[in-house]
Structure formats: C-alpha cells, structure tokens
Amino acid sequence: MNISRIDLNLLVYFDVLLRELNVTRAADQLGISQPAMSNGLKRLRTLFDDPLLIRTSKGMTPTERASELKPVIRELLNGLEKAVQPKAEFNARESEQVFRMMASDYAESTLIPLLIARLRNEAPKVILDIMTPSDVNFSDVEQGRVDMAINRFDNIPQSFHQKVLWKDTFSCLINRTHPVLKDFNLDSYLDSHHVWVSKTGMGVGVGMDPDDVQRLGWVDEALARLDAKRRITVFTRNYQAASSLAERQDLIATVPSKMARLQQDNTRVSIVSPPFDIPPIELTMAWSPLLQHNPAHKWMRELITETARIIDRF
Questions:
Q1: In what order do the strands lie in the sheet with 193-197?
Q2: What is the DSSP track for 173-212?
Q3: Quick check: 280 and 169 in contact, CB under 8 A?
Q4: How confident is the model over 279-306, as pLDDT tens digits?
Q5: 279 torsion bin: left (phi>0), alpha (psi -120 to 50), beta (else)
Q6: Contact by Cβ (8 Å): 126, 92
Q7: Is 197 within 8 Å of 237 (Cβ atoms)?
Q8: What is the pLDDT of residues 164-178, one digit of tens each?
Q9: pTM for this prediction
C-alpha cells in the first residue's frame, strides 16, 4: 500500500464511525451528508479490504479487523492533533472558559470545594459546570462534550486517559447516643439498621435489590466474604443525606473516610472504624483522548491533581 495515496480524512471517518456505529450519526458529527459518509465507508472497506461494519440485529457491529484498527488509528489521530495544536499558553487568570465536568456526589463534597477556592484565586473568570453521573454517559466524555469525569469507576473505556486522584478507606458515622457505641463489634454492627449510599459509574441508575450483593458494592461485598449481611433500611445516592440520617436517626452510615471527616466538627456524630476490613476505593479522573493535549484542559487536570494531593495529605 502506498501511504501517500491515503486520504487522512478517511481515518477521521473511520474513527467517528467506530465511535457512533451509525452512518447517519457519524455524518452529523462531521458535518457532512449521509451519502458522503456512506461513500467514505465504501472507500475504507476498499482500503482495508474488510467490511469493517456489519449490519446485525443489534445495529452496526465492528468486525474483528475494525476492532484491531480502532486503537491504532485513534493513537495516530492523537499524534496529528498534538502536532497541529497551537503552542499558545493557557492564560488562566484571564480565561472565561467553561469547564464541564461530571463529579459524583462523593467527589463534589470532598474535592470540588477546595478546587473552587483555588479557582477563585488563580482563575477568577473560569466557570465550572458540574454534572452528576446521571446527566452524562461515556460517549459524552469520549466525544469531548464533557471535559472530564471524576468518580469511582468499575470500568472505563480503554481509549480514555485516566488518573487516580486518591485512595480512601471507610468509616462509620453513628449518632453519639446510639447504644451500639457501647460495644461496637461485628455482631452489634450487623444487628443495627443501616443507610446504604453509593453511586458508581455513569448513566441513569435503577432501584436497588437488598439481596444483590454484587450491585450493593464494597461494604456489602466485604461482609459477604465473611458470610455476613447488614440490615439496610434506607437506600440513597447522596452522601450528605446519608450523613444527615446518621446524625438524626438510629442508622449507621458506612462511607468513605474523607466523606466522614466532613462531619468531624459535628458534635452529634461519632466517626469510628468499621469492625471488619473493607478494601480501599479509588477516586479517578477520566478524560477523552481528544482533549489530552489541549492547553486549557491540561491546566485544569493539573490543578485538580494538585488539589487532590492537598486533600489526600489530611
């Protein structure tokens, strides 16, 4: 194959087609007509001597060859984007850029307040648009419509860049008058009533099943390894709500320790270690390869990383 005869636009077409798995949507993304995109797919099939996308009952499905090519072409396009990226420095103090980020309730409570304080000092005109995990999906991040996602992820697409901001242990929030504090052990923990709180991943959530241990998450999986199960009375996706319930009710909230420490000045609540081992969790920042070399986004990611490092020292 004579590489000088390859139309680089075809590689862009391939990248978008493999992301959208739909000719019409891919055409819309690139601002071209559907016939032009169909012709591009035809030329790609000739170039690679492979059908690349096959229509099935589930829609357009990549061939094995297309799946192999996807990361290679994405990396090639990343290099091209970096090569043509303007060298101008990002002027944080004068920038009025809007940064759109998805942040879990946990991240928004622990990381974002200090991040905003630093922004007010270092980039006073910058605006943050903070979204919840239910507001966006991985496609929004991959296509750069959301600048970064900060959450605890079970799985992240391989094409994403990611950085672990910190690891966190767990603590229990308990009303100071709760009788369980007189003899806090595994048995008394299991005999108590609990508020469950979590929201991992992205997309719209669904109702919880108290018997579905795998979906219940880290705390209940750790108990299951001990052949034990706690009595969950309330399910919530909001850590502030869980903290409030632990303060006012006879409920135990087992939450990440950085979240629990936000209540350290609350005289109504005790913060104690769980009476069993729970593996630590990771707070991760993920972003699209499309934004990897953008000066403004590089600056914001570095600021978030520095802010997380400050928080993690305490």
A1: 231-236, 193-197, 251-256, 170-175, 269-272
A2: EEETT-GGGGG-SHHHHHHSEEEEE---SSS------TT-
A3: yes
A4: 999 999 999 888 888 889 999 999 999 9
A5: beta
A6: yes
A7: yes
A8: 999 999 999 999 999
A9: 0.71
